[in-house]
Amino acid sequence: MRESINNMEEDHDLFSRISDYFRGESDIEEVRNDPGFAEAGRVADEMISGYTGSGVKPENRTFILESTDSEMRGISEEISRNNLNEISSHWVKEWETKKRKKESEKIREFIANSVGETENQSEKPPYTEKRVSLRPLFMRYALSAAAVIAGIIFVVSVLVKSDDPARMYDKFYEPLAAISPVTRAGSMIGSNRLSEAITLYNKGEYDAAAAGFSEIISSDPSLVPPRFYLGMSHLALGSYSQAAALLEEVAAGKGEYTKEAMWYLGLIYLKNDDKMKAREIFQFLAQTPGYYSERSERILRRLR
Amino acid sequence: MKEYTDSEIIRCLRERDSCVVHYLWDRYNSMVRLVVTRLGGTSEDAKDIFQESLMIILEKIDSGEFALTCKFKTFLYCISENLWKSILLKRQRAANYFLRRNESDIERDFTEVMDDKLYEDIFREAFDSLDNACKSVLRLYWEDYSPQEIAEKLGVSYGYVRRKKCESQAELIRRVKNHPGYKCLMEEKKRAGKVVAGY
Fold first, then answer.
1. Could you say which of B48, B78, B100 is where a domain stops?
2. Which of A5, A94, A200, B133 reaches 20 to 30 Å from A249, CA-CA?
3. Residue A252, CB-side half-sphere exposure with 13 Å CA sphere
4. Tens of pLDDT along B1-56?
5. Contact A232, A175 (CB under 8 A)
6. Do B87 and B171 lie in a common domain?
7. A255 lies in which domain range?
8. Residue-number span of the structural domain to which B56 is assigned
9. Which of B24, B20, B25, B39 is nearest to B83 (CA)?
10. Which chain A residues are Cβ-neighbours of B55 within 8 angstroms?
11. Which residues of A touch B79 (CB under 8 A)?
12. Across the interface, which of A11, A26, A65 has its CB nearest the CB of B142?
C-alpha cells in the first residue's frame, strides 16, 4: 500500500516536471511567433543595457521577493484558505474585551471596596450589598452602549441600502488605461492604426479615437480589440446604448477583452438601473479569478 | 477563460496585487527556467532572473512610459533572456579577468545543466513516440485549455477528453520511465544519493 502511494507520488512529480517542460516549450514557441517579438526584443535590449540592479526601488524589490517567496506564499494562502484573518481578528477582539472586563472588574472591585469601607454597619454580607448597588449602574451603561450600537447599525444599513446604482456607476467607473494589443500576424499596418487610436483614447480624445476604431472595424470586422475600444470610447462620451451594443458583442466572445467588456457592461446596466442584468454579470465576474473578482464582490454587496 | 488577461496583469502589477505575481510565477516560471537553463544557468539562476525581470517591468509600468506592443509573456521572455545574457557576459568577463591573473578558475557545477538537457531530450523523445490523439490532447492541456474547450477543438466528447488525457498521461510517464536515458539518470542519482527536486 505504502509502495503504491509512493509510486503515485513519484508519477505525479514526474508528470509535473514533464508538464513544466512542455508548457515552457509551448510558451517559447508562441513568443517567437508573436508579431511583436522583434520589437519587444529591441525594447528589452535597451532597458537591460542601462540596468544595474541598484536602480530598483526597495519597495518594489520587497513586493516581488515576498510575492514569489514560496514560504510566505504558503502562509498567505493558508491564511486565506482557512479564513485565519477573520478568526484571529475575532480572537484579538475577544481577548481585548476580556482584558477590558478584567480591568473594569478591578475598577468595580476597587469602588465596591471603597464604598464598603465607608458604609455604616450593615448586617448583610458585603458581597451581596455590592452586587445590589452596582447592578443598576452596570445595566444603565450596558443599555446605553446597546442603544448606540443599534443606532449605528441602523444608520449604516440605511446608508448602505441607499447606494443607488447610478451612484455606484460613478464610484466604480474609470476609463481604462489602455494598452496596445497584439493584432493578428501580418497586420502591421492595422497594428499601427490601432496603436494610434489607442493613444488618442488614452489622451481622452474619444471622438477622434472612436473614428479611428470605426475605420479599422470597417476594414476588418472580425477584429475584437477595435470593437472593444470603440465601445469604451462611446462609454466615455456618454453614449451608453452604443457602448452596450458593442461591449455585448465582445463579452459574448471568449477573447482577450471578455472580462473587461463584461465589467464595463455591468457598469452600464447599473447606470441604466437594470439591476438584474448587472447582478448576473457581477456574479459571474466575482466567481472568475482575476482583477475584477473582488471588485465585483464589492458591487454585489451593495446591490440588494 | 484565462485567469488574468494582459490588461489585468498590468493593472494588478500597478496596484501591487500579489495574487497576479503568484499567477505569473505559476504560469511562466517554466518558460523562464527553460530560457535560463538552455543558456547554461541553473534553476536558482532562473528564479533570480524571473524576480529581477518582474522588478524591471514594475519600474517600467510605474514610469508611465509603458506601452505593451506584444503579449505580456513575450515581453517577460525578452526581458529575462536579455537580463540573463547580460549576466553571463559579466561572468565571462570576470572569469577572463581571473584567468589573466592566473588565479584559480571559477568552478561551476555543470551537473544540473547537463541533467536538464538529458531530461529534455528524454521527455521530447517519449512524447514524440505517442500517437497523435494523445499528443493533441496533452498539448492542448498544457496550453491551459479546459477539457470542454479541448473537446470542442478536437470535435470529440468531454468524456473522451477526460479519459484520453488520463491514458495519455499514464502512457507518457511509462515511456519516460522505460527510456534507457532515464533509467541511467535514476541509477546515477541513487549512487550519488542525490534527491532530484525538480529541474
1. B100
2. A200
3. 7
4. 557 888 889 888 988 888 899 999 999 999 999 999 999 899 899 999 999 999 99
5. yes
6. no
7. 171-302
8. 6-100
9. B39
10. 56, 60-61, 64
11. 44, 47-48
12. A26
